[in-house]
Amino acid sequence: QTVLTQPPSMSGAPGQRVTISCTGTSSNIGAGYDVHWYQQFPGTAPKLLIRGNNKRPSGVPDRFSGSKSGTSASLAITGLQAEDEADYYCQSYDSSLSGSYVVFGGGTKLTVV
Amino acid sequence: EVQLLESGGGLVQPGGSLRLSCAASGFTFSGYAMSWVRQAPGKGLEWVSGISDSGDGTYYADSVKGRFTISRDNSKNTLYLQMNSLRAEDTALYYCAKPYYGSGRGSFDSWGQGTLVTVSS
């Protein structure tokens, strides 16, 4: 079971805005740990898309943005393009009595219809 | 340019062992904690293990604790993952990942291409 919850799939038309949610708990996102987002195309390694909740690494289009509030975070993609069709994962850190770990969401498959 | 090159994957029988390696270049390896992240076929990402920059601290997911051992050789810029008592559910593509910040608690800004481990009789 994954610690962070994402919708398994989402879809949108070209030009639309889509938002992918990532829901955690008080031991991870709610504890103040940053949320990061990755984009992964089939057969390739994940690519860092958003770090530190809302910071775009160099080269990432400003169509991608991140936010965080309480125990949840979101990745927004505006002006959806066909090339955005990919899997998206959120990541954070979890600290509880059982230990401290890097945690991922289960991933969201985005389809551009 | 950061490069991470994993090797050592292959087909192994249940209960067997494998040792993965990750050769790093393009950054000061000894200044960064490192992690292994795996992805089962058709599934999501799962953090497996992490190690501090000096190697003094090691961390494991519950699913591999007691079976896997992470280590590093900073003189060789190489990260390792010794996997023992392998199970079918360990079948996955194993990625070596470098954190954006040296401490390793944040995001991973560089990933290798992965090495495939298949556990099957």
Tag the structure with descriptive keywords.
heterodimer, A: 113 residues, mainly beta, three-stranded antiparallel sheet, 9 strands, 0% helix, 47% strand, B: 121 residues, seven-stranded mixed sheet
Detailed description of the structure:
The complex is a heterodimer of chains A (113) and B (121). Chain A is mainly β. Chain A has strands at residues 9-12, 18-23, 36-40, 47-50, 64-69, 72-77, 86-96, 99-104, 108-112. In chain A, the strands form two sheets. In chain A, strands 1, 3, 4, 7, 8 and 9 form a six-stranded mixed sheet that branches. With 121 residues, chain B is mostly beta strands. Chain B has strands spanning 3-7, 10-12, 18-25, 34-39, 45-51, 58-60, 68-73, 78-83, 92-99, 108-111, 115-119. The model of chain B has no long low-confidence stretch (mean pLDDT 96).
The portion of residues forming beta strands of chain A comes to over 45%
Give the biggest beta sheet of chain B: 7 strands, mixed
What portion of residues of chain B belong to β-strands?
Answer: over 45%
Which spans of chain A of ≥5 residues are poorly predicted at pLDDT below 50? none
State the order of secondary-structure elements of chain A, H for helix, E for strand: EEEEEEEEE
Q: Helix- and strand-based class of chain B?
A: mainly beta
Q: What's the N-to-C terminus distance of chain A? A: 29 Å
**Structural class by sheet pairing and helices of chain A:** mainly beta
- Tally of separate helices of chain B: 0
The whole-angstrom Rg of chain A is: 14 Å
Shape estimate of chain B: globular
Q: What do the pLDDT scores of chain B average to?
A: 96
Per DSSP E runs of 2 or more residues, the count of β-strands of chain A stands at 9
